Amino acid sequence: MFEKYVRLLKESQIKITPQRLEILKYLDEHRTHPTVEKIYSELKENNPALSKTTVYNSVDILLNHGLIQSITISGSELRYDFKRGMHHHFLCKKCGEIIDINVECPKLGSMLECGHEVVEVHGYFKGICKKCINKKKEKN
Amino acid sequence: MFEKYVRLLKESQIKITPQRLEILKYLDEHRTHPTVEKIYSELKENNPALSKTTVYNSVDILLNHGLIQSITISGSELRYDFKRGMHHHFLCKKCGEIIDINVECPKLGSMLECGHEVVEVHGYFKGICKKCINKKKEKN
DNA sequence: AATAATTTAGTAATTATTACAAATGTGGTT
DNA sequence: AACCACATTTGTAATAATTACTAAATTATT
Q: What residues contact B93, with CB distance under 8 A and at least 6 apart?
């Protein structure tokens, strides 16, 4: 059930707690780029004692050890995403959904040679998503 | 002095007010990606009556008309940037500075053909900037 | 099982942003 | 130039997201 996450935490030398396991598992199984609020309210259902502070603390430590990444696309709040291969994000301004975009930029290498030490790369696109475009068409 | 900004506001059919002119001018002349707080405290020096709400309102309307863009790279607060050719941003995790990165991704066109209607494109890089790397070297 | 250090929960404090209403300023008209 | 309808500015209050802090509980180790 949790072996995968126990292993990930051990590899990163992070102390194992049920809360961290649940949060990491939640992010792995829900690639919806949730906010702290969302993670908190979802996990609180099975663990009513859960504290929001714990969610903040946990995502912080998972983030610092590179097990998850933070997404700043929406401006008003941070969102989190289980770390896997590089991908970008599209924010629909109509429905608010954040959709994964899988592309690789061939120029990326040269971008990285700017003299700065680049650790993170984020591509954010914004506009109207496919679904919302189709909804609009149906109405007409 | 303000002709350029008067023209820009007129073209966008935004009502001209001294506050909007000052804010637009400030963003044009200070490409430092300032926060609302920064814009407010800087402009308050010459206009003590300035209200922070006005800065929020003004950047909102300038944003909605495409005269400026918002940057969500730092997560905790929105930053603003006078609109010009496309460029990306690098956030130094040490000194917090946000540096412009001028690159064009040749794959961008194909990225845009994902079925979604793409309106905005943002590239965010994070790491340690040139200056901070050199500072570290000097210490050793 | 005992221990030392870390983490959790819960509340309070802080920061960024939005909501609101009265006072003022804008652009167009006479 | 004065008038007017409407939009904007101020200033304060409210909300939302995050951080600070401390006692109680839990973790990994002895």
A: A119, B126, B127, B128
